[in-house]
């Protein structure tokens, strides 16, 4: 089919949350924006990650909470209604239809070209469409790459023939496997182990290291989640690697898994949650002097640093700064404003916390693990503070001692850790572990981004009796330990 060509101000490759936000913000800046996508608009988050995974986990967490509330225990003792849970998951994933996303793009005046897009030299994008045609897009000002990541598989004999689960299979599965092996100890591994164990699978988690949730998390977070998984019936094996996998009876038969200690186990499905790789192998990076399959290094305005003339930007997971949806959207908002300002010849407000600054990437990246118990964190961990030579006071508090926690759940187990800059007296890192703590995370993020001194924070009074009273208890602990009079 004959090709066509178009000229616009901005072209965005990838219509996940980061790409959608980048196109929206450049359009809002008065630029003509075109977004290119060969799958569903909304990307991984809407259809195979955030939305469906949280739909699977919400009934698990709600039942766990109910079991700790007097008067509800008996009602919460039965098994989950699996068909209802999966039906709710389907609803939250919009039944894998992106009509609403298409309507939204139209509402913000962003054009869509469906097909596989790839760079073809400076400011050039060629799209192979489903009908066999091609569309050449020329960008006057910028091209943004927001193609995200894909599962990073280890190099294992026979892995391809086994057809292992990825996050996509785990969040979209139509049945509950009797036995599920989960390889990995990060967020995807922990969340999916939590969900499928509660839905009826016998889950075995195989972690190469000595604990889970190692990345950007305090050690006690992984330990508390591991304890809860074991209590739920999961088999956790640390310092254990997979050396071989095989389906001895072909498709649909059980998977035999050989382990690094010489042992083996059998599962009906095996989920690999061993990390992510940049989705950049087939987007034409070689045509602009970059290496296909690499992460895209960017400066603090999200320009790709190794491309001359500063026309190529990368936002979201693909730049490897923070592999989280909300952070990709933040980056896209910043980058969209930057592209708009540069197109108009306006100066950038790129000072710390400025409108064109990427400060939150390093100082205040929030994260939630929707496990049971929940894990929330923002800013520095103790290990990161030590590694960077940042002198901090570490304040720990047992959340279960807070009156609001006792109201929330009988026998509440949780822990708070707050890091306070030893010189400036400002909050620089927070970790909460425990039921309901996800709703504490924004207050922690505000405390860090506002660089609030603890003397000022003392006057932010938490309501009684709520879990947020933990802030007061942390500050009291800090005051008493330091001999302060505030």
TrEMBL record:
Domain Pyridine nucleotide-disulphide oxidoreductase dimerisation: 365-471
Pfam families on file: Pyr_redox_2, Pyr_redox_dim
UniProt-listed SUPFAM superfamilies: FAD/NAD(P)-binding domain (SSF51905), FAD/NAD-linked reductases, dimerisation (C-terminal) domain (SSF55424)
Residues of the FAD/NAD(P)-binding domain: 9-327
Keyword Flavoprotein set for record: yes
Keyword tags: FAD, Flavoprotein
InterPro entries: FAD/NAD-bd_sf (IPR036188), FAD/NAD-binding_dom (IPR023753), FAD/NAD-linked_Rdtase_dimer_sf (IPR016156), Pyr_nuc-diS_OxRdtase (IPR001100), Pyr_nucl-diS_OxRdtase_dimer (IPR004099)
Family label: Belongs to the class-I pyridine nucleotide-disulfide oxidoreductase family.
Biological source species: Streptomyces viridosporus T7A
Source organism phylogeny: Bacteria, Bacillati, Actinomycetota, Actinomycetes, Kitasatosporales
The protein's required cofactors: FAD
Superkingdom to which the source organism belongs: Bacteria
Name the record gives this protein: NAD(P)/FAD-dependent oxidoreductase
């Amino acid at each position: 089919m004959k090709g066509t060509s178009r000229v616009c101000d901005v072209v965005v490759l990838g219509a996940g949350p980061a790409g959608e936000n980048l196109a929206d913000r450049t359009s809002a800046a008065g630029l003509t924006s075109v977004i290119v996508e060969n799958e569903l608009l909304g990307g991984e988050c809407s259809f195979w990650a955030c939305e469906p995974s949280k739909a699977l986990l919400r009934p698990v967490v709600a039942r766990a909470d109910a079991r700790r509330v007097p008067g509800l225990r008996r009602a919460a003792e039965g098994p989950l209604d699996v068909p209802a849970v999966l039906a709710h998951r389907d609803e939250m994933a919009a039944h894998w239809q992106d009509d609403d996303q298409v309507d939204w793009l139209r509402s913000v005046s962003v054009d869509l070209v469906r097909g596989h897009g790839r760079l073809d030299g400076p400011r050039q994008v060629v799209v192979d469409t489903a009908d066999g045609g091609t569309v050449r897009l020329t960008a006057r000002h910028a091209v943004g790459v927001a193609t995200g990541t894909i599962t990073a598989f280890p190099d294992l004999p026979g892995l391809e023939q086994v057809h292992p689960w990825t996050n996509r299979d785990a969040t979209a599965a139509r049945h509950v496997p009797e036995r599920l092996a989960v390889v990995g100890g990060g967020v995807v591994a922990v969340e999916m182990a939590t969900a499928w164990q509660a839905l009826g699978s016998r889950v075995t988690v195989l972690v190469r290291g000595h604990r889970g949730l190692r990345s950007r998390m305090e050690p006690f977070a992984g330990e508390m989640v591991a304890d809860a998984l074991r209590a739920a019936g999961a088999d956790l094996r640390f310092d254990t690697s997979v050396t071989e996998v095989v389906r001895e009876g072909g498709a649909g038969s059980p998977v035999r898994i050989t382990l690094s200690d010489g042992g083996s186990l059998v599962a009906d499905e095996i989920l690999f949650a061993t990390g992510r790789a940049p989705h950049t192998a087939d987007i034409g990076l070689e045509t602009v002097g970059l290496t296909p399959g690499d992460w895209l290094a960017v400066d603090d305005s999200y320009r790709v640093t190794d491309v001359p003339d500063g026309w190529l930007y990368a936002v979201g997971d693909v730049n490897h700064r923070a592999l989280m949806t909300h952070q990709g959207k933040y980056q896209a908002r910043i980058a969209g404003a930057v592209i708009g300002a540069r197109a108009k010849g306006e100066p950038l407000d790129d000072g710390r916390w400025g409108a064109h600054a990427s400060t939150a990437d390093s100082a205040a990246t929030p994260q939630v693990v929707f496990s049971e118990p929940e894990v929330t964190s923002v800013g520095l961990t103790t290990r990161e503070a030590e590694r960077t030579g940042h002198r901090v006071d570490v304040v720990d508090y047992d959340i279960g001692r807070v009156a609001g926690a006792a109201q929330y759940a009988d026998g509440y187990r949780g822990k708070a850790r707050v890091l306070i800059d030893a010189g400036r007296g400002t909050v620089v890192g927070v970790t909460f572990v425990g039921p309901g703590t996800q709703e504490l995370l924004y207050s922690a993020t505000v405390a860090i981004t506002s660089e609030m001194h603890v003397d000022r924070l003392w006057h932010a009074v938490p309501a009684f009796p709520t879990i947020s009273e933990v802030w007061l208890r942390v500050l009291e602990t800090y005051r008493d330990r330091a001999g302060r009079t505030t």
